[in-house]
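Anyone? Bumping this.
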Amino acid sequence: MIKGKIENTFASLENISKSFGKINALNNVNIDIEKNKITAIVGDNGSGKSTLIKILSGSLKPDSGNIYIDGENYKYLTPKLAHEKGISTVYQDLSLDNYRDVSGNIFLGRELTKYGFILDYERMEDETETLLKDLDIHIPYFKTPVGYLSGGQRQSVAIARAIFQGKNLIIFDEPTAAMGVKETKATNELIKSLPDRGFTVLVISHDMHQVLHLADRIFIMEHGEIIDNVSKTNITVMDLMERISNGS
Amino acid sequence: MDIKYDKKTSGIEKPFTQLFLLGVLFILIIFLSIYSPFFLKWNNIRNILDHAALQLIMAIGMTFVISTRGIDLSVGSTVALTGIFIGLLLKAGFPIFLSSILGVLAGGILGTLNGILISKLKIAPYVVTIGTMSLYRGLSLVITKGQPIYGFPVEFTYFGKGDFGRINPPIILAFSIILLGAFLLRYTKWGQYALALGGNEEALRRVGVSVNFYKTTIYTFSGLTAGLAGLILTSRLNVAEPNAGFMLESDIIAAVILGGTNMKGGKASISGTVIACLLLAVIRNGLTILSISSYYQQLLIGIIIIVSVSISEIRQGKQIRIYN
């Protein structure tokens, strides 16, 4: 059940439904993503979280419902439109081109040019250096194809790209799934700092401790529906796990 | 904390394929020049370059296609069909220049058809281009009833076997296409997206790039280079031959792979393609000089390709294991 409408939203999904054949992945889902806050979505496998992200990032079209982005109504988004609206996503598979180097991946689809069409590698590398320093990300060799980097470094590149390319909403799908303890801590701190940098954040995670540490509001999903939304001050890790396990 | 970034190096070894090929080419040239006093004569060098020009032009187009994890098996048939088209235009009285331009553009249209079928209908590239390989060859045979088309103006032969100082026009055209290809690959979004299509097509789609557009235009480019090769071949022979370019695609693909472009996509090398084409041309020339039967040429080239690609794959696998 939804407890009241959230004010000052950047994005809202209203009565969104999506089916794949006979499978109802999403059933009249309503979510408000508050501006400059961190919203989390939790739920068991198959609850519809990934489908929801894909709809917000433009990879999938909903069967019905409305999407509101900064007050404007859309029936569906495309990847290009999502990017124009300042939405970028860090996918679980990271969506990196393993043969391109760090700045090549950060600027993928957003390459800088000079004279209108000639790629400006120097400027891209300078901006990448500035971005990585700003985010305190350590990757010593710029020219290394990212396929040769460690899992944590690759995740950092994916996050840096999302921060660079997404001007408004950044969506994280299991952001620390492949990371060790130290990298998880650093990534969590980075995500936590994003609202202060002017970003709105949506996090999908199975890690309840991470969710409670990061999120201001938590939506709980089950079988394609939102069964509850809570403020993090009103719930504990055990409560969350109970709600997910036992349902509505 | 002051973080230092090394923006000059990759921190890993450079791929060695191009250097290896260059070394083999160099050794071969030395050997052949010692064995035969005629090898390093300008006429023979020009002969090598002239024969390599056709393969070079088409191989540049194929480099882009293969970098996307695609393949274009229809290029040999495109050579024939565009040659037929040019021949018909010439016989109909069209000016040479216009016929030539339209012929090359026709190659582009044939390539675009491949691109649309592959990108829009999501049919595998080898399936589409095997189909169009037969389609285009079949059209050439049906239109000409299997007979070559003769009787073009003598000025038409300039493209294929004229003189531009001491250089033939095909060599100049090949050089221009090489420069164009290198520029496009390195310095344009179009070229970099060709690599990204092979590196991670879904990642490119997710950042909002129109994947279908870029994939289609890459096959258009392959068709254009095949059309240009069709023009050169028809001009060189002064005949539009429906069986022209038969099995040419195998040599082209071999050169591109030998040159280090990754069949799994994501990596391409124009310089590698160029060196590989020259190497294969020198080998063919060398075998002729050594009076070795032409039957052995294909055998030897096949062995070279398998050995070179195997060495390259083993080295690439070692690099990934080291850094993982």
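Late reply, but here is one note on the structure posted above: Chain A is about 30% helix and 30% strand.
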